[in-house]
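Exercise 7. Predict the joint structure of the components listed below.
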Amino acid sequence: MAKSKTIVSEFTKGFWEILPPFRLVLGLCPILAVTKAAENGIGMGIATTFVLFFSNIIISSIKTLIPKKVRIASYILIIATFVVIVELLMQAYFYSIYEKLGIFIPLIVVNCIILGRAEAFASKNPVFLSAADGLGIGLGFTLSLFLISSIREILGAGTIFGKYIMWDSYEPLAFMIEAPGAFICLGFLLAIMNLIPKK
Amino acid sequence: MEIIVLAINAILVKNILLAQYLGNCPFMGVSKKMETAMGMGISVMFVMTFATSFTWLFHHFFLIPMHIEYLQTIVFILVIAALVQLLEMVMKKVMAPLYNSLGIFLPLITTNCAILGVAVLVVRKELSFMDSVFFALFSAVGFTLAIVLFAGIRERFEISFIPKAFQDTAIALVTAGIMALAFFGFIGIDSALKI
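Solution:
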């Protein structure tokens, strides 16, 4: 990148330039699995943002202490710690969403977006930039999850956040809230994003 | 008989890739060629069976007696990472030809969410040890089946016309969706077998 890195540019790039999962095809499992309803999508997005933000800060601040050979293992350990914190917080305060997301909360550990940002960004950049990067990518991810899950919920059940919004004679496309709908919906969104130039 | 039902359920009806949404990164990433897909599938079979048995034992003989079940995620990922390293070393020494063909997939598998997913799933479902091992093995067989079939379809993309916007991942996702729809057809055969 030719232009200088500022906190603002690092924060905003997550919303367009490298918006996951469209520009950065990583972390597909949560995107496909938890986007049955808009509520779940947002819950997952916020949990991931939390982990991404804090793990980026910690990894960036101790990057000089970690030996190169064991860096991936150390990153995974740091990420896993924050995932456990999220798990416990959600159990305590948002139990209904925790139940719905099920095993996909512990699986945030192996979400490639988080490890990818740790390796590609936080391990090379100062703390504040890494924090901005983590927050930006996390919120971009939340936005994408919200987009996919609302499309699937509206087409598949005719509702958004549990409220019915379609006309009365609307026949819900039940397959949209099942696995095939997830794949096809993401495939079409990706194709639409490919039509729009990056700049 | 019960084992057959378990197998059909894990391989076809609740296919780990196409119905449970686990392990989709390698599904998209290494499915461009039949050979690599096969290699990935066999490595997953190895690691998933071993990892699930070890994490099950860790959970029941270490986490539960110590009352630290909340550390499950950290312990499981550590066990899996250590196991993959160990398996890599053992394979290098004992089965060199196998290592040469599968070696590159092993480090990738640590972050394959299907492995951790199945390990967490069997503990949450409270399956017995033998059931867990078989469940892991059959899930991995299902993974291999789906990824090999998918690679077979993807190899044909090279000679077919695909609109520019759909090239690469987009068309792959739509194809996976249609495959998942086809796998829907298996719903119900497990209950038919039980009777």
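Discussion. Chain B has one domain: 2-194.
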